[in-house]
Design goal:
The structure is a homodimer.
Chain A lengths: L3 H9 L8 E3 L6 E4 L4 E10 L11 H17 L4 E11 L5 H18 L2 E9 L4 E9 L15 E5 L4 H9 L7 H12 L5 H7 L7 E4 L4 H12 L2 E5 L7 H7 L4 H5 L6 E5 L5 H8 L3 E8 L4 E4 L19
Parallel strand pairs in A: 4-5, 9-12
Antiparallel strand pairs in A: 1-2, 3-6, 4-6, 7-10, 7-11, 8-10, 9-11
Chain lengths: ~325, ~325
C-alpha cells in the first residue's frame, strides 16, 4: 500500500483549481474565497461493504460516485457546488493503480461540476471509505425540506427504482435481460446529480420543497412530510418506471417506492404546474406522483403489487 | 445499536447554533452565512484501532478530541473556527449511552470554540470513525507552511512529546510514576487546540510560517521545509520537555522529536523575537528550538540519546 504522503500527492496531482481557491491542498487548511454571503455545506461517506464492493464497478466509477452523492445534496438545495475536501480511509491490499484510477474519476467529476478539490486527509482503516465534505453557493432561493404545504403537488425527475434494481443485480438477488441489466447497474454505479434541475427549481416561486432520492422515495418523502408538518398521498401507479425496471420487475413499483440511491429529485410545488412545462424548465422528464395533504403520514394508493409496511432503503438496517 | 435517524437526533439534540447558521442539521445541506470573503476548510478523521481505542478514555474525551484535532488545523492557520459537519461511522456493539456521552463531549467542545455543528451523516462500518470537516474565518494574515525563510528562528509552544509518551503508556509500552502517567495520558486524550496562540501569531509581521504538531516535530517541520524550499537545524537539547516526560523518559528527546499528537504550534519568525515576548503575546510557554537555513533537509544537533534516522509519527507506517 502506498504511504500517506504519496497518496495525498497522487490525489492532488494534476488538480485544476479555480481562482476562488486562494490556498489549495498541502497546508493545515485550505483558504477559499466565499463569493456570496450564504454557503451550503454537506458531508457524505461511502464505505466498502456497506455502500459498495470493489468488484462491482471500476475504481474510476467509485471515485465519480463518491462525489456524485454529495453533489446531489447541493442539487437538492438548488445550489452550485464549489469546493470539497476529501477524507480517505485506506486499507491494506489495495494497490497504487487503484487509487490513481479512483482519483482520476473523482477529479474528472469535480472538474465537470466546477468543484475545486481543496484538501484531503488520509488515514488507515480496515475498510476503504471515502468521505467528502462539499461546499456550494446558493445564488437564489433554497429548496428546503420544511416548506411543503397541503395542496402542493409532488413530482419526481427521471425514473425511480433503477439503482435499487441495479444493486440487487450486482448482489445476485435479481436477474434481468442483458440490456436491462446493464442500464440498471449503470444507474447504480454512475448516478448523475441533478444540479441543473435543482437550479431551475430554485427559480420557481414559491420555491418548491425538495429532497434528493438517496434513502428511497417513501423514506425521503417522509423527511419532507416530517419537517414540513404535513402528510402526503402517493399514487403508486404514477411512479415513473424505466423500461429496464419493467423488464426486470414488471409493473410492481415496490422497489421504486422503497429502494434508494437513484439521486433523482423529489419536489413539491404549488398546484397547477404541468409536467411538460416542468420537464422543459428542468431539462429532465418530470412526473406527478401525488400530493401533499393535511396530516402527518405518507399514504400510498394503488400499490397492488406491494407488500404492506414498505420502508425506504436504510443502510443501517438492511445490510446486503 | 441505535438506528441512523435516532443517532442523528441524538447528535443534534440540545445543539446551540449561532445566528450565522441560516439552516442547521436536517436538510440536504446546511446554509451558513460567510461573514468574510475568505474562509478556511479542513477535514480530519479519527478511526478506532488506528487513532484511539475505546478503553483508553471516556466517550466524552473521544468526542472532544475528535473536534480538537480539527480545531488545531484552524489554529495553525491563524483562523477562528466557525462551522463543522460530522460524519460518524458506527459499528455494532456500541450502545446509545456511549454516543450520548461522545456527542456531549463534542458539542461542549464546539460550544467552547464557538463552532456551530451544522450537519451530520451517519453510516455503518466495521470500525467506529469520526470524521469532521471544519470551516473557519481568517480575519487577518494566514500562517502558511510555505513562508519560512532562511534566517528565521523556529519556536514551539508548550512542551513536546507528552502525547506520544501518553499513547505509549496506554499501549502498555512505557511505564511512568503515577503522577507523570496521568499528566502524559491526559495530554494524549485531551489535546488543546492553540487557537488564541494562532490568532496572536497571525498579528506578527511578517506572518510566521506555522504548523500544528500532529505527525511529530521532525515530520511536521519537514512539511514546512519542503513547502518553503528551505532547510532547518534543530537543537535537540532545546526541545521543551515536561517534568512528566522527563520522569518517564529521562532527558532523551527522541520521542519528543518523533512522536506526534501534541497539537502544539511550531512556527518560524524572522530573527530577533524573544521567547519571553512571544510567550506573553501567545499566552503560552514558547521555546526557541532552532533555525531555518538554506538547503532542503532537517538537521538535528545535540541529540545524544537518539537513534539515527528518526522519523515522525506516521499513522500509516507505525500501527500500534
Amino acid at each position: 500500500m502506498p504511504g500517506e504522503f504519496e497518496l495525498i500527492e497522487r490525489l492532488c496531482a494534476g488538480i485544476t483549481l479555480s481562482k476562488r481557491t486562494i490556498l489549495g491542498p498541502g497546508d493545515d487548511c485550505a483558504i477559499i474565497a466565499s463569493r456570496r454571503s450564504r454557503m451550503l455545506v454537506t458531508i457524505d461517506s461511502m464505505v466498502e461493504g456497506v455502500h459498495f464492493r470493489l468488484g462491482w464497478g471500476t475504481p474510476r466509477e467509485l471515485g465519480r460516485r463518491a462525489l456524485a452523492v454529495n453533489l446531489s445534496d447541493i442539487a437538492a438545495m438548488g445550489g452550485v457546488p464549489a469546493f470539497c475536501v476529501i477524507n480517505l480511509a485506506v486499507r491494506r491490499g489495495i494497490d497504487a493503480a487503484f487509487f490513481d484510477n479512483m482519483y482520476r474519476g473523482l477529479k474528472a467529476a469535480a472538474r465537470a461540476a466546477g468543484v475545486d478539490v481543496v484538501g484531503g486527509n488520509i488515514t488507515r482503516a480496515d475498510q476503504l471509505a471515502i468521505t467528502i465534505a462539499l461546499l456550494g453557493d446558493l445564488p437564489g432561493a433554497a429548496l428546503r425540506r420544511d416548506s411543503a404545504r397541503a395542496g402542493d403537488e409532488i413530482f419526481v425527475t427521471g425514473t425511480v427504482g433503477d439503482a435499487a434494481a441495479g444493486l440487487r443485480i450486482l448482489q445476485g438477488k435479481l436477474h434481468a435481460p442483458v440490456r436491462a441489466r446493464s442500464f440498471l447497474v449503470s444507474r447504480f454505479l454512475n448516478p448523475a446529480a441533478r444540479l441543473d434541475a435543482g437550479r431551475a427549481l430554485a427559480r420557481i416561486r414559491p420555491a418548491p420543497a425538495a429532497i434528493d432520492l438517496s434513502d428511497g422515495l417513501l423514506q425521503d418523502l417522509g423527511h419532507i412530510v416530517e419537517r414540513s408538518g404535513v402528510g402526503a398521498e402517493i399514487d403508486a401507479q404514477a411512479v415513473p418506471l424505466s423500461p429496464a425496471y419493467r423488464a426486470a420487475l414488471g409493473d410492481d413499483p415496490s422497489l421504486a417506492l422503497g429502494g434508494g440511491e437513484d439521486y433523482e429529485l423529489l419536489f413539491c410545488t404549488s398546484a397547477g404546474h404541468r409536467e411538460r412545462d416542468l420537464a422543459r424548465r428542468l431539462g429532465l422528464p418530470v412526473t406527478r406522483i401525488g400530493k401533499i395533504v393535511k396530516g402527518r403520514s405518507v399514504t400510498v394508493i394503488g400499490n397492488r403489487g406491494a407488500s404492506g409496511g414498505m420502508r425506504g432503503f436504510d443502510q443501517l438496517r438492511s445490510r446486503d
